[in-house]
């Protein structure tokens, strides 16, 4: 079983919890109905007091009260009141009762005593809400004292209490529970005074009686409507959570399953992410993961291919060394032994160059992005390199440097970029005939810098152009046999141009072979320069780097 904490952290559960928070708004409304009910009771009591005061003021104009006058006043009200009115004389005897006058006494009796149970309270939905509220009240609310503990259900006791206060000159108020339903019967008593000010004589009392049945009926309807809103909110929250789970959680679960199925027991890739066609963030994530796994798979294949190529390249000189050592033990002539020793030394030197090149290119792949870069002017770097190459190879190759944009700067590591230019210059010198020329041209625009390296060597056939930057691929063509300088670390290992591409692409640039070289009328910046493999006149390498910001 999942730990409880992990269950809470599931996105689908958190979404459901968040949606259910919206349900608490109508639930708070249900819990606040008690305040609403208390306010209605206060308003009803105020209304009863106002009716009693008006009636008491009308009766207090005469020095005494009699039954005929009291009944006449109640009849003259002509149904303008919604409560039961009773008038008492000084001996607390009933002089008139509105419930016994005219055709209205049954309506008033029903309205005041309320013997019928509201239909709303009998509905199954209301009973469900009432059960849930009672459960909540039992668990979280303090017990409510029973009305019977104060007044009981004795109508006479409540009425007598209110009248006693009225005849003592105060406002009398009392209530009792209804015998037929959950409503209350409210009593409000006002003394009837005759005379001015403090000398006024209490000649009787007015008692107003009214049931809270109407308020209770309205509250039943309101509670039912609010509970319906609660249930609707819960249903909406569940539906919304299911919808969100379908559109968000399930795609994420699919990505999780694909991630779990990507590797086999040995940790090798056996699958990948499927790019989604969704246009939202999850679709973007799935496409990014699909691209990530594609590039990771390509990198793994490259590493496997690279390891295979390295083992293949190491096998040839090792086989030659083994053969030479076996033959060395079988010959006695000093000249033959020296020849085999020279072969062994050459193959060992080849192995050293090959291992150095492999170490160099792996370091470039692993460390280039972490190296610190600086804004480097290209013109001084090229000028210094050309001067050094003229000193070393000026007796056999002529160098031409053309700078059209002396202000160009790029964000690179100076030593690594110098290594790129040195490899390309070494490559151009190695393929150039005696008395040939190597042209270097610097140009650029607001976005990028372009450096051209042009030689007059044998060029690269069309069938080899796609492989010229591959690792361990070396094409010499008709290069002079006495020349060996194809990069200080290369020596025909096929790693010189691969190192160039790795460094340039690490700096966000590109390197391309543009063969044959452009003539003086050719636009060097044109990316549509074509190659005619039938007329090879040397090779042109174009290095493009983004300018410093």
What this model shows, in words?
The chain has 549 residues and is an alpha+beta fold. It folds into three domains: 25-227, Beta-Lactamase (2-Layer Sandwich); 281-367, Helix Hairpins; 371-546, Heat Shock Protein 90, CATH 3.30.565. It is built from 14 helices and twelve strands. It has a five-stranded antiparallel β-sheet with strand order 2-1-5-4-3, sandwiched between helices. A five-stranded mixed β-sheet has the order 7-9-10-12-11. It has a two-stranded antiparallel ribbon with strand order 6-8. Strand 9 and strand 10 form a beta hairpin. Helix 10 packs antiparallel against helix 11. The radius of gyration is 52 Å and the shape is rod-shaped.
Key words describing this protein structure:
549 residues, alpha+beta, Beta-Lactamase, Helix Hairpins, Heat Shock Protein 90, 3 domains, 5-stranded antiparallel sheet, 5-stranded mixed sheet, 12 strands
């Amino acid at each position: 079983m999942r730990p409880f904490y992990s269950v809470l952290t599931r996105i689908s559960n958190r979404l459901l919890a968040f949606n259910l928070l919206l349900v608490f708004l109508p639930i708070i409304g249900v819990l606040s109905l008690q305040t609403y009910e208390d306010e209605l009771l206060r308003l009803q009591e105020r209304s009863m007091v106002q009716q009693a005061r008006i009636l008491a003021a009308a009766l207090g104009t005469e020095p005494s009260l009699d039954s005929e006058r009291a009944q006449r006043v109640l009849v003259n009200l002509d149904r303008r009141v919604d409560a039961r009115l009773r008038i008492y004389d000084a001996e607390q005897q009933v002089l008139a009762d509105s419930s016994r006058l005219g055709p209205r006494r049954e309506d008033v009796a029903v309205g005041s005593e309320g013997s019928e149970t509201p239909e709303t309270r009998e509905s199954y939905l209301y009973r469900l809400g009432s059960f849930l509220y009672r459960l909540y009240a039992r668990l979280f609310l303090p017990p409510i004292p029973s009305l019977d503990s104060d007044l009981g259900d004795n109508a006479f006791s409540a009425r007598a209490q209110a009248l006693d206060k009225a005849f003592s000159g105060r406002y009398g108020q009392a209530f009792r529970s209804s015998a037929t339903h959950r409503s209350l019967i409210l009593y409000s008593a006002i003394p009837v005074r005759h005379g001015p000010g403090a000398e006024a004589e209490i000649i009787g009392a007015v008692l107003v009686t009214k049931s809270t049945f109407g308020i209770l009926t309205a509250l039943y309807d309101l509670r039912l409507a609010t509970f319906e809103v609660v249930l609707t909110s819960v249903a909406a929250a569940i539906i919304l959570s299911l919808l969100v789970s379908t559109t968000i959680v399930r795609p994420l679960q699919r990505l999780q399953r694909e991630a779990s199925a990507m590797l086999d027991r040995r940790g090798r890739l056996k699958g990948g992410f499927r790019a989604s066609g969704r246009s939202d963030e999850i679709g973007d994530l799935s496409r990014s993961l699909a691209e990530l796994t594609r590039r990771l798979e390509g990198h793994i294949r490259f590493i496997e291919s690279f390891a295979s190529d390295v083992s293949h390249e190491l096998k040839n000189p090792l086989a030659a060394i083994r053969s030479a050592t076996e033959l060395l033990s079988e010959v006695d002539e000093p000249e033959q032994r020296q020849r085999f020793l020279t072969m062994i030394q050459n193959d060992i030197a080849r192995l050293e160059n090959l291992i150095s090149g492999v170490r160099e290119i792996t370091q470039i792949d692993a460390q280039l992005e972490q190296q610190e870069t600086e804004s480097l002017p290209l013109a001084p770097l090229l000028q210094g390199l050309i001067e050094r190459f003229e000193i070393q190879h000026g007796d056999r190759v002529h160098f031409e440097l053309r700078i059209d944009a002396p202000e160009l700067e790029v964000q690179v590591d100076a030593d690594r970029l110098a290594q790129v230019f040195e490899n390309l210059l070494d490559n151009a010198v190695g393929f150039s005939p005696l008395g040939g020329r190597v042209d270097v041209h610097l140009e650029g625009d607001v976005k990028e810098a372009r450096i051209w390296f042009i030689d007059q060597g044998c060029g690269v056939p069309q069938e080899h152009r796609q492989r010229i930057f591959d690792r361990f691929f070396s094409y010499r063509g008709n290069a002079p046999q006495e020349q060996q300088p194809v990069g200080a670390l290369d020596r025909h290992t096929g790693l010189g141009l691969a190192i160039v591409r790795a460094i340039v692409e690490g700096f966000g640039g590109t390197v391309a072979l543009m063969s044959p070289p452009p003539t003086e009328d050719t636009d060097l910046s044109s990316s549509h320069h074509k190659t005619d493999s039938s007329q090879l006149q040397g090779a042109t390498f174009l290095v493009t780097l983004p300018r410093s910001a």
